[in-house]
TrEMBL record:
Keywords: Metal-binding, NAD, Transferase, Zinc
Residue intervals of the Deacetylase sirtuin-type domain: 1-244
Annotated GO MF terms: histone deacetylase activity, NAD-dependent; metal ion binding; NAD+ binding
Keyword field contains Cytoplasm: no
Cleaved signal peptide residues: none
This protein's name: protein acetyllysine N-acetyltransferase
Binding site for Zn(2+): C121, C124, C146, C149
Organism: Kitasatospora griseola
Superkingdom in the source lineage: Bacteria
InterPro entries in the cross-refs: DHS-like_NAD/FAD-binding_dom, NAD-dep_sirtuin_deacylases, Sirtuin, Sirtuin_cat_small_dom_sf, Ssirtuin_cat_dom
Active site: H113 (proton acceptor)
Length: 249
């Protein structure tokens, strides 16, 4: 009888998508460092209250290029991990949909903060593609309203000031408790409750590996910390996971 392969949980943050042209938020060159007021654009109170905030938010979405972004070597490495037959789940703080675009089955991706690939009306709750809304912005609508009821459109993301979906948190907690290897990739590990997942994994005897360009609050507890660029480091880590080296080490 073959030995059961360990479950690998991968928490991904903004750093995994920077090589796809999507800027991070908290790094030295991140959006919050360059323009602290930009946080209003993704905070639910100011977003709903101010037409000007929404106009700036739509402009930011259009200029960020997330809709046209393509998966990079880091995303593709995780697809290779899944295709190699390693039991794995991705818990992502990102809202760009690049894990699924790279080829990961949607059922293996837990989107902790929702998705920016769709919009939803605050009023009637109608859902539509973000790309279509951005086309309206490009055509001259600086704050496109819901085509069905005229209500405010917002991305289907969890904005600052909102709680995460409880069922999503339950799934993430179960994965962190059940994994044998926990990779934290491109995350500052400062945003809660996602920042608690490494602790949950460690408390359940998982091996913690952190891949991030900057120090994180959990580096001290990690079994391994990698400072190499993610697009270079993650393919190498995946090879070690496929061979079983990380689970044994």
């Amino acid at each position: 009888m073959s030995e059961k392969r360990p479950l690998v949980a991968v928490l991904t943050g903004a750093g995994i998508s920077t090589d796809s042209g999507i800027p991070d938020y908290r790094g030295p060159q991140g959006l919050w460092q360059r323009d602290p007021s930009a946080q209003d654009l993704v905070t639910i109170g100011p977003y709903l209250a101010s037409t000007e905030v929404r106009r700036r938010a739509w402009l930011m979405r259009r200029e960020a290029g997330a809709v046209g972004a393509k998966p990079n070597a880091g995303h593709r490495a995780l697809v290779e991990l899944e295709r190699a037959g390693v039991p794995m789940r991705v818990l992502t703080q990102n809202v760009d949909g690049l894990h699924q675009a790279a080829g990961l089955p949607a059922r293996k991706v837990i989107e902790l903060h929702g998705t920016a690939t769709e919009v939803q009306c605050v009023g009637c709750r109608a859902v539509g593609p973000m790309a279509a809304a951005l086309e309206r912005v490009a055509a001259g609508e600086d704050d496109p309203a819901c085509a069905d009821c005229g209500g405010v459109l917002r991305p289907r993301t969890v904005m600052f000031g909102e709680a995460l979906d409880e069922m999503v948190l339950v799934k993430a907690d179960a994965i962190a408790k059940g994994c044998q290897v926990f990779l934290a990739v491109g995350s500052s590990l400062q945003v809660h409750p996602a920042a608690l997942l490494p602790r949950i994994a460690l408390e359940n005897d998982a091996r913690l590996i952190i891949v991030n360009g900057e120090p994180t609050p959990w580096d001290w507890a990690a079994h391994e910390v990698v400072r190499e660029p993610i697009s270079e480091a993650l393919p190498k880590l995946v090879q070690r996971l496929v061979s079983g080296d990380l689970a044994r080490g």
